[in-house]
Specification:
With about 300 residues, the chain is of the alpha/beta class. About 35% of the residues lie in helices and about 20% in strands. Strand 1 and strand 2 (about 35-40) form a beta hairpin.
């Protein structure tokens, strides 16, 4: 699992690596989460899927070259059209298939900040990378501020925006009847999260989002993370508690007047790196991003 997680996390944070990926070898796999609800994996962020009499609703759509494979995988589960695509945030491994999905008839939905950021060039300071504006056809055509609810396939699918966390346009998606939550990159199951400070990300927001999902979840709730395997409430609790511990350590060092480099040199994550720092997001990089995001 660690090798697979490292690979998908690397692609999540560095789309430049995606250009080197041979997508012809990527296989889209589906796992049933609940009746009518699936998670699809391939390369990039985990895809959520609702299928039923109303058609398909997709949560995130990975990289553009995988669009045909993703749509084919959906048809093998249920021969229904994709009617809606919900983007949990703006990163290319979650929105790359937007244009293809839209041209096939899907309505793109996201928080208003996702459309704003996709509409213009973005610069990521962590990776010193520029991302050009998305084509018009790839932009969400329905946007929301606080949230939106779909009454779809016999379920109530609630999309909820959270304050700046992974980015400033994050949303998680709750299937009320199925008792399933898709958290996008608010949750990296098995690794430190990437906090995209260039897109408004904040460690305090990531922790608060985890608290919000935990409060409304039970022991049987299934949680689809942005990256990593399907999770339980206990998995999310462990992630949240680790982030809180490390956030407090780094904040204390910063409050003592230590510089960014001094805090990184203090290795505040060292006793957690063996479990959480095996993906692309190593302890030192994570420490720097937490430091930067603290206000």
């Amino acid at each position: 699992m660690k090798g697979r997680l490292a690979a998908v996390l690397a692609l999540a944070a560095a789309p430049a690596l995606a250009q080197q990926q041979d997508f012809s070898k990527v296989e889209i796999k589906a796992e049933k989460v609940a009746d009518g609800v699936y998670v699809l994996t391939g390369a990039g962020g985990n895809i959520g899927l609702s299928v039923g009499k109303d058609g398909a609703l997709v949560i995130d759509d990975q990289f553009a070259p995988l669009a045909d494979k993703i749509q084919a995988a959906i048809r093998t589960i249920a021969p229904v059209p994709v009617r809606f695509v919900v983007n949990t945030h703006l990163h290319g491994d979650h929105v790359g298939g937007n244009e293809s999905m839209a041209k096939a008839g899907a309505v793109l939905v996201a928080h208003e900040n996702v459309r704003k950021r996709l509409s213009v060039e973005q610069f990521n300071a962590t990776f010193n990378r520029k991302t050009p504006p998305s084509p018009e056809a790839a932009l969400p055509v329905v946007t929301f501020t606080d949230g939106v609810t779909f009454h779809w396939n016999g379920d109530e699918i609630r999309v909820t925006h959270v304050p700046p966390a992974h980015t400033d346009g994050d949303a998680y998606v709750r299937f009320v009847k199925a008792d399933v939550v898709h958290m996008g990159d608010l949750f990296f199951n098995g690794g430190y999260p990437f906090i995209d400070t260039s897109s408004g990300g904040r460690i305090d927001g990531v922790i608060a989002a985890a608290d919000q999902v935990l409060e409304a979840s039970g022991e049987k709730t299934r949680i689809i993370p942005g990256h990593g395997p399907l999770a339980t409430r206990a998995d999310l609790q462990a992630y949240r508690d680790t982030l809180q511990t490390l956030r407090d350590r780094i904040a204390k060092l910063k409050a003592e007047g230590k510089s960014r480099d001094e805090v990184i040199a203090a290795k505040p994550t060292a006793d957690h790196d063996a479990k959480w720092g095996t993906g692309f997001m190593k302890g030192d990089t994570f420490t720097g991003l937490v430091y930067d995001s603290l206000t």
